[in-house]
């Protein structure tokens, strides 16, 4: 873990930090109950205890943004977690047996899953089971598996030709020990960068799904649905679209910059492997 | 080259077949029997059995799959259990709208990315080039539907220059058709253009470091002239790959943008199908979209080989 701090890392880290802080703070405090419907406060202008105003149901926009950050991060963490836990072992296996039938099978299935974007998977899951946060997370996670598998495979291929892996094999270490002792520690930094980039994509996908009504169900606040609800009021109250839109852009920009920054900061030996978008 | 094409075609056919199995198997998990759903809770068992025979859902799953998948090539997507109308023509009607949306978005993206990316590469040492890079980074963070809402606010709400949504068929009124598509095209194209600008910039930068470009400059060509004659074809190889990936992204983006602008395309059809629990319709649209993604990947791979003879 040696490297220099850089502008991308600091800016990205700061933006992600703001989102994470807002999400964490929302567990203990929000200015108002984000789901409280109050006709008297309908479309309340910003000010008077309502920092960013209230929506058509009288719900406080700022409180909704804070809890929305929680929804976004929750979906992102679970989706990227699914992708990393499934994709990494598959990629490592494919990378350690580059000419085997198993590697061929993994990469072919990988290509097939790659043809199913998160949105289509989520819509299909939604048609069968009814759409909610869980189906959105699974759809985004599964559709991100190929990105992890490809990056893990490419990085593993590089590690497998190094002298220390050769030495370990000569000393009689089995494939399992090589994978856990040599491959995984050395491809870790590439996977961390991939996780950051995938997180940004997961946020975009979650926002799009909530916008379409295939994500988090009401009344749980989510940025995508806030945008969807704001659309009919665009002519009269455009600020309702501005804030959730800004929140999405800040979070995505933050994770993208963080990914770029981490790539330069972490192990420069594996820098040539680009994170998959 | 012929052998390569045949091999790639075989992979494409196998992928589409595998995707067909996946989509069919997935939708077959749908809880509830379409015949029971169609007739409601008070139906007699005889009526349900009769309708099942009519739908063909009493047959083995493999036979149903072969029937459905075999019909696809001829545009037969089956008859909807919900609306009793054939699915194929509905998809056919919408396919053109979505295709126009996606290709227009791609054209906007290219019109932005190629000049801006080349400019940013040629001037990578001065502040304007750096500013373009920074702007493209920010553009990547804006999803297409958010760009759409912002564009509606600027051009429909504030300037009142363009419609905020709706779709007029080309045959009815070409001018209105175009006016209605400008904002959707921009929503899709601006964001993808931002992404593409980064790739064009780095591809052109790579080419500028090549010996053959220096030779062309030494022989008296200007910077842009040398790039035009020798650089752009070489720079286009990595850009084409990204372009293919982006077309797939645009296809998905179009589903959401159609919702923003109330455009009757495939995305609109898909979401309506889910709302109506129209199994065959959803299955058909998903299949078309996935097949389109696979087809795009195929075209990209082939183009890649045509552009770069070293790969042959």
UniProtKB/TrEMBL annotation, chain A:
It is a multi-pass membrane protein. GO terms for cellular component: plasma membrane. The keyword Transport applies. It comes from Nonomuraea pusilla. One of its GO terms (biological process) is transmembrane transport. Keywords: Cell membrane, Membrane, Transmembrane, Transmembrane helix, Transport. The lineage of its organism: Bacteria, Bacillati, Actinomycetota, Actinomycetes, Streptosporangiales. This is Peptide/nickel transport system permease protein. The chain crosses the membrane at residues 7-29, 73-97, 109-128, 134-152, 190-214, 240-262. It holds the Pfam family BPD_transp_1. It is found in: Cell membrane. InterPro entries: BP-dependent_transpt_permease, MetI-like, MetI-like_sf. The keyword Transmembrane helix applies. Residues 69-259 form the ABC transmembrane type-1 domain. Belongs to the binding-protein-dependent transport system permease family.
From TrEMBL, chain B:
Its main location: membrane. GO terms for molecular function: dipeptide transmembrane transporter activity. Residues 95-300 form the ABC transmembrane type-1 domain. The keyword Glycoprotein does not apply. The keyword Transmembrane helix applies. It is a multi-pass membrane protein. The chain crosses the membrane at residues 9-30, 95-122, 134-157, 177-200, 237-261, 281-307. Belongs to the binding-protein-dependent transport system permease family. InterPro entries: BPD_transp_1_N (IPR045621), MetI-like (IPR000515), MetI-like_sf (IPR035906). SUPFAM superfamilies: MetI-like (SSF161098). This is Peptide/nickel transport system permease protein. One of its GO terms (cellular component) is plasma membrane. It comes from the Bacteria. The lineage of its organism: Bacteria, Bacillati, Actinomycetota, Actinomycetes, Streptosporangiales. It is found in: Cell membrane. Keywords: Cell membrane, Membrane, Transmembrane, Transmembrane helix, Transport. It comes from Nonomuraea pusilla. Coiled coil: none annotated. CDD domains: TM_PBP2. It holds the Pfam family BPD_transp_1.
